[in-house]
């Protein structure tokens, strides 16, 4: 067996970690067969959307406000698109409602699914 230096082990670990991450990203982007993720979707928005919904094991209305995005610029149509994508992919359950007076968007009866928990854990929370 070839003796490896600490530096070569670290390099090999980085290579394997990157390959593993690519595989996980491919899996998370393909929650439902045949679906494609549009290029204009932002991972940072998925983080904020999933983070707020992950606290609801049972369906409840979750309203998103501009303050939820920590100063990041976000529009109502962009939030709707991201929420609908998460619902379509099975990461969360709920119905998007955007005509309420408070907040930018509300996800009615929102609940994170097992797929959503896995997506959040793998890509954002590292739990």
Summarize the structure in words.
It is a single chain. The chain is of the alpha+beta class and 127 residues long. The longest helix has 24 residues. The chain has a domain of 87 residues: Arc Repressor Mutant, subunit A, CATH 1.10.10.10. A hairpin with a 7-residue loop joins β2 and β3. Strands 1-3-2 form a three-stranded antiparallel sheet. It is built from four helices and three strands. The two termini are 34 Å apart.
Largest sheet: 3 strands, antiparallel
The succession of helices and strands, N to C, reads: HHEHEEH
The termini sit apart by 34 Å
Low-confidence stretches: 30-35
Helix amount: 40-55%
**Beta-strand content:** 5-15%
Number of strands: 3
Q: Which strand order does the major sheet show?
A: 1-3-2
Global geometry: elongated
| Classification by helices and strands | alpha+beta
- Report the CATH superfamily of one domain: Winged helix-like DNA-binding domain superfamily/Winged helix DNA-binding domain
Q: Enter the CATH topology name of one domain.
A: Arc Repressor Mutant, subunit A
CATH architecture of one domain: Orthogonal Bundle
Rg (C-alpha, Å): 18 Å
Give the topology, please.
Blueprint: H1 6-29, H2 43-53, E1 60-64, H3 76-88, E2 92-97, E3 105-112, H4 114-125
Antiparallel strand pairs: 1-3, 2-3
Summarize the structure.
The chain has a three-stranded antiparallel sheet with strand order 1-3-2.
Which keywords apply here?
4 helices; Arc Repressor Mutant, subunit A; 3-stranded antiparallel sheet; 3 strands; single chain; alpha+beta; elongated; 127 residues
